[in-house]
Amino acid sequence: MSKKVKCTGSVNMKKQGTYTLTYTVKDNSGNAASVQRSVQVCADPTATKLYYDHDSYDNTMEEWWFNKSKDHQRTTGAKDEKLLKKYDAYYQGPKEKVIYLTFDEGGNDITYIKQIADVLKKNNVQATYFLTRNYIKTEADFIRQLVKDGNVIGNHSWHHYDMTTLANAASIDTFVAEITETEKTYMEVTGQPMKKVFRFPKGGSSERAMKLVKDLGYSNYFWSHAYYDYASDVSGTEALKTMMDHYHEGAIYLLHPSNKGNYEAMDTFIKNMKELGYSFKTVDTIPADAKDK
After folding, report:
1. Are residues 25 and 165 both part of a single domain?
2. Which residues, in sequence order, are CB contacts of 161 under 8 Å at separation 6+?
3. Distance between CA atoms of residues 173 and 251, nearest Å
4. Which residues are catalytically annotated?
5. Which of 55, 130, 193, 202 sits between 20 and 30 A of 143, alpha carbons compared?
6. Is the pTM of this model over 0.85?
7. How many structural domains are present in the chain?
């Protein structure tokens, strides 16, 4: 049948615009039927070339740290608030009863990320998943389901490098590729542009690296709640205690789905927080919410 279909019209993949293709087919009696389809050629949103003029910015790498919340009061972090604001960086949301669950997945051999996603879906909770390019590529079906369920996929770079080592004139193309190649893969997998949500691998950053990330159109998200869940497994009871001991208004939780305890504690944690009047949001809502406060 396909040999009998004639197509008229053409598409210039090098020129942006909308093109119309007409498909016509005839049956053995000579009766013809036709249908038109429109094809839109768009600019590649990941074809980014960043002009490097950033040597005047400090490139001293600093790991992210924060003061644990006491008595569920809001906390402070490693960097000056004015510096964070300057580069669209956040470690907590506005002062309201909202928790921002975030999960960092670098492609571990053992992970409970899919089980955690099922728990969140059952509780009608959306989260932000900071994922590397290779994970997005190899888990395409899962990524599409996460997006369908209303979750946000954050950019966690291509190779999980220390980005400050690439924040220089000699390596700027690699720095950019770490982010844009992840964007490109996300678009190939989902058919939609990636939200401009970034987290530095292992939280290591510098003023220069934050400036570069902002110049690429991204906001950066640190965290105000975390524990050593990446170092060794904990029980669900231990994980739940840690999550409950240090919650506060606007808390951004960093959790690693490689730890089974986080999975085992998640359902109870969500239910507990809802009983306390808290809701859950994705981190991309923070900038707009913060402006309203």
Report:
1. no
2. 178, 201
3. 34
4. 104, 256
5. 202
6. no
7. 2
